[in-house]
Amino acid sequence: MSEQRVSPQTAGANPARQAGRPTEEQLRRALRTATDLVRADYTGQPIEDVCRRLLVETRLALPSEVAPDFTPDMEQFCQIAVAIVRGIPLREGA
Fold it and tell me: Where along the chain is composition biased (Polar residues) (predicted)?
């Protein structure tokens, strides 16, 4: 089973900059919302398109003050996209 876990990249981040970052809870909720929407609308699109849509929907689900600066690890995002394409359920609470 795939884990639904994407963290904001933290390399080189300073504490002042992190104030505009999503919390883990905000990110978890946004990613769950995005995953549910993309999975429900999936009709055979390529993985690359699913990954891009997942990113767009996640940003839309994040609070407006943190969404523009959200920079996920795209490898992790694409792993979730692969799970959507393959129909693999994602672990709850991850």
Answer: 1-12
pTM: 0.74
Regions of the chain with pLDDT less than 50 = 1-3, 5, 8-17, 94
Q: Which domain holds residue 34?
A: 23-86
Report the 10 Å Cβ neighbour count for 57.
19
Domain count, the chain: 1
Is 32 inside any structural domain? yes
